Amino acid sequence: MSFLEYAPAPESQAILNLRSEYGLFIDGEFREGHGTPFASISPATEKHLATIAHADAADVDAAVAAARRAYDRTWSRMSGADRGKYLFRIARLVQERSRELAVAESLDNGKPIKESRDVDVPLVAAWFFYYAGWADKLDHVGLGASPAPLGVAAQVIPWNFPLLMLAWKIAPALAAGNTVVLKPAETTSLTALLFAEIVQQADLPPGVVNIITGAGETGAALVGHGDVDKVAFTGSTSVGRAIARSVAGTNKKLTLELGGKAANIVFDDAPIDQAIEGIVNGIFFNQGHVCCAGSRLLVQESIHDEVIDRLKTRLSTLRLGDPLDKNTDIGAINSAEQLERIRELSDVGEAEGAERWTAACTIPENGFWYAPTIFTNVSTSHRIAREEIFGPVLSVLTFRTPAEAIAKANNTPYGLSAGIWTDKGSRILAVADKLRAGVVWANTFNRFDPSSPFGGYKESGYGREGGRHGIAAYLKTAAPALVAAAPARKTVTKGATK
Ligand code: NAD
After folding, report:
1. Fold of 21-257+466-477
2. Whose CA is nearest to atom 3 of ligand 1?
3. What are the CA-CA distances from residue 79 to residues 86, 136, 173, 246, 476 (Å)?
4. Predicted TM-score (pTM) of this structure
5. Is the CB of 387 under 6 A from ligand 1?
6. Which residue positions are annotated as catalytic (predicted)?
């Protein structure tokens, strides 16, 4: 098969003015940290991008104290309409600086520019616009009249969607009247620090948003701080467990968005061309660094060979390389550690008897890369069917009946998301109803919208982000909490059907 040749189309970096060093953003200004600064590198080239301050316990104290002062003196006293104006202003500034933010995100994280430009950054703006609209309507969130903010929120986020996870955390917290201290992941701090500049540009009162950088111990000091009222964490299940332990017995409210091992179920009546695109989007979007990735393909046995053949053909057309090239489909793996984990689990997959197929592509000399890979002949007991690989690796299992598909899909400690591909609307509803997953996509995958709650069951965590559920997690009320007390519900999103 021959493919069209693509000339390189690199996005210019001229728009981005990175400083050589970044401090901590506390009380409305950048200041030095007391820990040893660390480097942020480009995962695609391993080149040094900037030196980042490291917050120690004293810096965490200062950030929480600034957030508390801002909460007491300004933010919690401001009307919802006025808070909303600040959030609208942030949303517009994100739009104005969208190209710069997209370039910074791709440089620092390794994700393709077409994803940061067309998915991450537009969704960041959408999240702030959406929650700006809620700020003066809190009486209608579903918690009864006059719900109140919680106070100071400690927020810790991962590296896979750095700016988007920041928006998911900060937008609802501020709209509800809380102040925040946020810690980005140590490999992807840059866009959070650019966001701190946006906070300054938007003229937010000092201390309403504080960004502190550092690794796990900084995060642990933040969530364990005695003057924090709410902890919101997105990251791995193991760290989520440690945080749940540290918060237990305190008055802090906690939401956890953790890992996943989603089943993407393809029935034999599915629109195959769309399903192939959905499978690719499900697991190869963002190099598979997606908590809700469709990392387990459950395909009906009668169409297994056809689906796998077509999938291999499609994967052979994906272009791996420079994240800043507008043609790139598969960017860099975020870090050497993550690459090692993907390699290790893939080797285990082969050792346990699954069959590995890897798309032929040229791997750049420097940086961290992993070619799109499929494992067939996978059984439910294999580690690659049970553990989150968090990379561009798909494990394929088969089923014969809907009941078997449901049993296999639910045979996981996780419960974040799932996908269903079929022509029958009745089957979508019947199967979605039985899947133990917080989000179920039908004839589509990896769709996000600020009005749609997102979150997990079981080891994928608890609490919802997005929608009014997302803002309810930052509010308290004397009346019974209608939204918060409701059992965890799943969101079913249907793609366009013929
Ligand atoms: P991670 O848990 O290692 O780190 C996440 C964040 O927690 C980082 O900022 C890290 O510095 C910090 N941290 C580490 N140890 C800590 C501690 N003891 N106390 C407080 N903070 C600590 O996860 P990761 O490798 O950055 O991200 C990948 C994981 O995140 C995957 O498992 C993925 O599924 C999950 N994730 C989940 C969602 C979701 O919405 N459910 C979204 C994105 C990523």
Report:
1. Aldehyde Dehydrogenase; Chain A, domain 1 (3.40.605)
2. 236
3. 11, 7, 15, 34, 17
4. 0.95
5. no
6. 257
C-beta of 185 in contact with ligand 1 (< 6 A): yes
**Residue 163 zone, left/alpha/beta (φ > 0; ψ -120 to 50; rest):** alpha
Ligand 1 centroid to 155 CA: how many Å?
11
Q: What is the pLDDT of residues 448-466, one digit of tens each?
A: 999 999 999 999 999 999 9
Q: Is the CB of 244 within 6 Å of ligand 1?
A: no
Average pLDDT over residues 371-389: 97
pLDDT tens digits, 76-91:
999 999 999 999 999 9
Give the separation between CA 192 and CA 234, rounded to whole angstroms.
15
- Give 10's strand partners: 325
Q: Do domains 21-257+466-477 and 263-442 have the same CATH topology?
A: no
Considering only CA atoms, which of 404, 475, 479, 437 is closest in space to residue 80? 475
In the set 11, 115, 257, 387, the catalytic residue is 257
Distance CA 285, CA 401 (A): 29
Q: What are the helix (H) ranges across 324-382?
A: 336-351
**CA 392, CA 361: separation in Å to the nearest integer?**
13
Task: End-to-end CA distance of the chain: give it in Å, rounded.
Answer: 30
**Residue whose pair of structure tokens reads 């710069």 in the numeric block:** 100
459 is catalytic: no
In angstroms, how far apart are the furthest CA atoms of the chain?
67
Fold adopted by 263-442: Aldehyde Dehydrogenase; Chain A, domain 2 (3.40.309)
**Average pLDDT for the chain:** 95
Distance CA 89, CA 86 (A): 5
Chain-centroid distance of CA 422 in Å reads: 27
Q: How far is CA 488 from CA 264, 415, 433, 445, 464, in A?
A: 21, 11, 13, 21, 8
Give residue-wise pLDDT tens across range 220-236: 999 999 999 999 999 99
Task: Look at the alpha carbons of 210, 216, 218, 223 in this order and tell me if their dihedral is positive or negative.
Answer: positive
pLDDT at 495 over 70: no
In this structure, what token pair is assigned to residue 410?
A: 């639910």
Q: List the domain boundaries for the chain.
A: 21-257+466-477, 263-442
Using only C-alpha atoms, the chain has a radius of gyration, in whole angstroms, of 22
Could you report the per-residue pLDDT of 291-345, keeping only the tens digit for each? 999 999 999 999 999 999 999 999 999 999 999 999 999 999 999 999 999 999 9
Q: Is 71 exposed, middle or buried (0-12, 13-18, 19+ CB in 10 A)?
A: buried
**Euclidean distance between CA atoms 356 and 349, whole angstroms:** 8
| CB of 55 closer than 8 Å to CB of 24 | yes
Residue 145 has what pLDDT?
87
Digit-coded pLDDT (tens) for 431-442: 999 999 999 999
Ligand 1 centre from 239 Cα, in Å?
Answer: 7
What is the spatial distance between Cα 141 and Cα 74, in angstroms, rounded to a whole number? 23
